[in-house]
Design a protein that fits this description.
CATH topology: Rossmann fold
CATH class: Alpha Beta
Number of strands: 9
Shape: globular
Distance between the termini: 35 Å
CATH superfamily: Alpha/Beta hydrolase fold, catalytic domain
Strand content: 15-25%
Number of domains: 1
Mean pLDDT: 80
Strand order of the largest sheet: 1-2-4-3-5-6-7-8-9
Order of helices and strands: EEEHEHEHEHHHHEHEHHHE
Length: 316
């Protein structure tokens, strides 16, 4: 698949399938590889686009100041979709990619059919303070990738010992890590939070997802849901970040249900067509049975708490 000149840098992307467009956006220090199982599964049912944001993976340099990084990355996504003749899509953002997805929904609302935030960071003051400490610890953690003897690789093997696919892909991501540009992105994401609740689209279907074994991710999932009037939350059992790699079958089932609007009791479900094989075949039936055991969906509508929004540097 191509790397194309776009908006002052090179952008790598892959596209598979036909039908409802879905765009997957990774976080900093990772790449499109964290959506490998989604590209394979949904590429048979939808039109799937994965890309490497500028400064990551196979894409070109950031070529942007820290204050402009998120804006440039959003522009890149918009321009790429315009080039691919995609006028509206479901946007799935993982980790800090969820912040890019939220910014995209705010700046280009006509482009976003629905929003899915996976293991995404939160925006309340308490969570914001925690992110600064987390960023410092992450920085120390990445230093181990330069230690001799594969120390960092061994640490990833320990963390993801229960999830073979996640272990393989996270090791690959570590090999593609770009320290200087990752640090700039980390600073950029720390400077700004998600969408202010008063700015959220009233008709935007939103799904917030986290893994059961990710205690901090569960808290941020609930905080994110409060920013959107009709947000749903879902917990994937036996998963940490990235949930879609730890339990790809469960995540794919969850996203497929969300696309079909089966889990929205609010009347605000996205009317999105999903093409591909019918569920009646034996492979799909086995997939459904395995996946549903690993999903917990909260169907309740998330209310906003105004006291959580004070003093936050939101997207304006």
């Amino acid at each position: 698949m191509p790397s194309i000149p776009l908006n002052g840098t090179m952008i790598y992307y892959e596209m598979e399938g036909f039908g409802q467009p879905i765009v997957f956006i990774h976080g900093y220090s990772s790449s499109h590889h964290i959506f490998e199982p989604q590209l394979e599964y949904f590429g048979k049912r939808c039109q799937v686009v994965v890309l490497d944001l500028r400064g990551n993976g196979r894409s070109g340099k950031l070529n942007a100041g820290i204050v402009d990084i998120i804006e440039k990355q959003c522009e890149d996504v918009r321009l790429l979709l315009d080039m691919l003749y995609i006028s509206k899509a479901v946007i799935v953002g993982c980790a800090s990619g969820g912040l890019v997805a939220q910014r995209l929904a705010l700046r280009y609302p006509e482009l976003v059919e629905a929003l899915v935030l996976v293991d995404c960071e939160s925006s309340s003051p308490a969570f914001r303070r925690r992110r600064h400490l987390e960023a410092f610890m992450e920085g120390l953690g990445w230093l181990t990738s330069f230690m001799p003897g594969g120390s960092y690789s061994r640490s990833l093997s320990a963390v993801y010992s229960n999830w073979a696919m996640a272990r393989r892909i996270m090791k690959l991501e570590a090999q593609m890590h770009r320290p200087a540009e990752s640090l700039k992105q980390r600073i950029a994401y720390n400077r700004i939070c998600g969408i202010h609740p008063d700015k959220a689209r009233r008709d935007l279907p939103v799904l917030c997802v986290a893994g059961r074994n990710n205690e901090w991710g569960l808290k941020t999932m609930q905080e994110n849901a409060r920013s959107f009037p009709w947000a749903q939350t879902a917990i994937i059992e036996d998963a940490i970040y990235p949930s879609q790699l730890c339990q790809p079958l469960a995540f794919n089932r969850l996203l497929l249900d969300f696309l079909r609007g089966n889990d929205d009791d609010s009347g605000q479900a996205a009317s999105i067509h999903v093409s591909g094989r019918d569920e009646a075949d034996s492979e799909e039936i086995g997939f459904l049975r395995r996946a549903r055991r690993n999903i917990r969906v909260d169907r309740s509508v998330r209310g906003r708490q105004k006291h959580d929004t004070e003093g936050v540097d939101w997207f304006s």
